[in-house]
Specification:
mainly alpha, 188 residues, 10 helices, single chain, Hypothetical protein af1432, 0% strand
Length: 188
């Protein structure tokens, strides 16, 4: 199968899985825009690893749909499934704990998973900059930027283009030095 065929097959799978989901913005944007945008940021940043692009397209399927890691492994192979597994939160945990663990796990993730994580955070912070999700306050937006900076801290040194774009958004939104954000003791 060609790289193009793999990307189309992966995009189709993600689109089917996310078909009824919407983003939390005022326009209720189709959710599939998010993983496609994450994959796009990766390619714009020079990432050519097909498995990373596939994982970007699939990165929320296990967390937000009925998809399993085993299903991804069967259809897309063990490497793609492994990358998705690395960036997937454990749904059974409280949101605060999942967010704390993302900060910790980012440092120990594979280079491929860190690339997906960087592009995912870039997409999310740019989206937050564009509009406030339904039910969010300005304080919650600020907290998200701080948390995203902490997650990105553990992924630095992987792709300067993505990191520079993230830093620009964070600085515009009040995070003066994203590379020096302070971790809490329980986030180390």
């Amino acid at each position: 199968m060609t790289d193009l065929s793999l990307i189309i097959k992966t995009t189709d799978f993600a689109a089917i899985k996310h078909k009824d989901q919407r983003r939390k913005d005022k326009d209720e944007t189709p959710y599939i825009n998010h993983p496609i945008g994450v994959a796009n940021y990766l390619t714009e940043a020079g990432v050519t690893d097909i498995e990373v692009i596939q994982a970007a397209l699939l990165h929320d399927t296990v967390e937000d749909t009925d998809t399993t890691i085993q299903e991804l492994e069967q259809i897309f192979g063990s490497k793609v499934a492994s990358i998705v597994g690395e960036v997937t939160d454990e749904k059974g945990l409280e949101k605060k704990e999942r967010k704390r663990l993302q900060i910790i796990h980012a440092r120990h993730a594979s280079k491929q998973a860190k690339l997906v994580k960087l592009a995912d955070k870039l997409y999310n912070i740019k989206d937050l900059e564009r509009c406030l999700p339904s039910g969010w306050t300005e304080e919650r937006r600020k907290e998200y930027y701080i948390w995203a900076a902490k997650v990105v801290l553990g992924c630095r040194g992987i792709n300067q283009t993505l990191e520079d774009q993230i830093d620009c958004v964070l600085v515009r939104n009040g995070i003066d030095d994203p590379k020096a954000v302070k971790l809490e003791e329980n986030e180390m």
